[in-house]
Amino acid sequence: MVNQDPQPLVPDDEEVSPFPSPSDSDRRRKERKPLSVRARMALQGKPPLEIRTFDINAGGVGVITEVNLPVHTLCNVFFKLPQPDGTFFNVAAAGTVTHCTFSRTRMGFTVGVMFQEVPEMLLYAINTYMKN
After folding, report:
1. Within a 13 Å sphere around the CA of 105, how many CA atoms are in the beta-carbon half?
2. Whole-angstrom Cα distance, residue 47 to residue 61?
3. Residue 51: beta bridge partners?
């Protein structure tokens, strides 16, 4: 079972994220599968954002927001990942914004969120979703 309330991995104001910004080629190495579900994003000191997902892989999730988020922003994302047996896996994962670009066709900012410390159960659920 995935912890429904992951520890926010948002540093103090003085702290800088240790994660480098991946290049475009690094971000696209893993196979992605479309995923269109409603989700929420929690940012430190702000109310949760209602967002939509557009794709997923074992390393992270692509989301659409109404807000332009800086690269390296730490966040928590929450959504239900459909499984082949008709059930849903409740995802509650900490992540880091790797890129954010406005998309007129998607009517919002497309944001890449790289998962941090992916629990084995989440990895299994994502791999199961990706195979079907």
Report:
1. 1
2. 20
3. 39
Measured between alpha carbons, how far is 49 from 65 in angstroms, rounded to an integer?
8
Let me know if residue 41 belongs to a domain. Answer: yes
CATH at 122: 2.40.10.220
- pLDDT tens-digit profile, the chain (132 residues): 444 455 444 444 333 334 444 444 444 567 899 999 999 999 999 999 999 999 999 999 999 999 999 999 999 999 999 999 999 999 999 999 999 999 999 999 999 999 998 999 999 999 999 998
Enter the pTM of the model.
0.78
Strands (E), 2-126: 33-34, 38-42, 49-57, 60-65, 74-82, 88-103, 108-115
CA distance 81 to 104: 26
